[in-house]
Write a structure and sequence with these properties.
Number of helices: 9
Distance between the termini: 32 Å
Structural class: alpha/beta
Strand order of the largest sheet: 6-7-5-4-8-9-11-10
Radius of gyration: 20 Å
Order of helices and strands: HEEEHEHEHEEHEHEHHHEE
Strand content: 15-25%
Number of strands: 11
């Protein structure tokens, strides 16, 4: 099938080139799937510390998002042919690599028209995303880390067409994630913040349309896996009963610290799903899980949102 064929192509290993470790804000050219982007050459230790940060270890997370969007778009067209453009948003776009993979890969896989929004609070990230979008979607621009222009008041991506589509478009916005999500309903929402996703769940669920899809990635695995039960309670409203580690039989953390149970990955998925279900219920919505993935560095959950009495 088209999806199976394309998935084998986009699983190619990401490559980072032109790294200059001698510069604090050095940029690099990073290739993943079918796109090449200018990204930060160094890693980030806290939110916003390195604009354009791209974690190569999160490749499988982006792969799943690309494939899930393609499948959701095809199902949407089969369910109701002739619908308007499918609106998609990457609320924490950073360098724009995921949104561009949606444009280049998901749109081609599904054969559907997408309206992709790449949003970030940082103007530096927006400038990178704009440069990368122009380089990947337009023949008139080349990818050059030295040619990234500062973000201005006028957005050059108001109506940049997605190649291979009739009406597909993409654009970049600079807004807090909650504001971007509240601006208009989106059929596909992707949340991948630095750390906990809990502060953004209500904004995503409150504006998700009926049968819309919300994909959430959380990297605060110490809380999700039960190593810090107090944080899990505070962020996700989860009451976790876990054992206490000791010097001889410790599964995570120092002696006297809560230790993660053998089923810690499933625990993380259930904690995140529970928080999403409660956020949806606060806005008279329900969720149906589509897929869940627990890796060494993150927990990813994708759900379909339903409205009405049956939700």
């Amino acid at each position: 099938s088209r999806v199976q064929f394309a998935s084998s192509r986009i699983m190619a290993r990401g490559k980072r080139q032109k790294v200059d470790d001698g510069e604090e804000n050095a940029l690099a050219v990073f290739q993943e799937g079918m796109v090449r982007c200018v990204v930060a050459a160094k890693g980030a230790k806290q939110p916003g510390s390195v604009p354009g940060f791209c974690n190569a270890k999160m490749r499988v997370n982006r792969d799943m998002s690309v494939l899930s969007l393609a499948c959701v778009a095809m199902a949407r067209n089969e369910r109701e042919p002739g619908l308007p453009l499918m609106k998609c948003i990457d609320a924490f776009t950073s360098s724009g690599i995921l949104g561009l993979r949606w444009c280049v890969e998901s749109a081609v896989l599904s054969g559907c028209e997408l309206a992709v929004t790449m949003n970030d609070l940082s103007k530096h990230c927006a400038a990178l995303a704009t440069h990368n979008a122009l380089a990947n979607l337009s023949d008139e621009h080349s990818l050059d880390p030295k040619a990234v222009e500062p973000w201005g008041d006028s957005n050059p991506l108001d109506s940049l067409k997605i190649p291979g589509t009739t009406r597909g478009t993409t654009h970049v916005t600079v807004k807090p994630a909650g504001v971007a999500l509240h601006d208009q309903p989106h059929d596909f929402i992707h949340l991948d913040p630095f750390g906990s996703a809990a502060p953004h769940l209500d904004a995503a669920m409150s504006r998700a349309p009926h049968l819309g899809v919300v994909a959430v990635t959380a990297t605060d695995t110490a809380a999700l896996w039960g190593i810090y039960p107090a944080v899990a309670r505070r962020h996700y409203g989860a009451e976790l009963e876990v054992g206490v580690g000791d010097a001889q039989n410790n599964l995570g953390g120092a002696a006297g610290q809560a230790r993660r149970p053998p089923w810690f990955r499933e625990l993380g998925v259930r904690v995140l799903l529970g928080a999403m279900a409660r956020a949806a219920a606060r806005h008279d919505r329900g969720i149906v899980p589509l897929f869940c993935l627990a890796s060494d560095h993150f927990v990813q959950v994708c759900v379909r949102v339903r409205r009405g009495a049956a939700a």
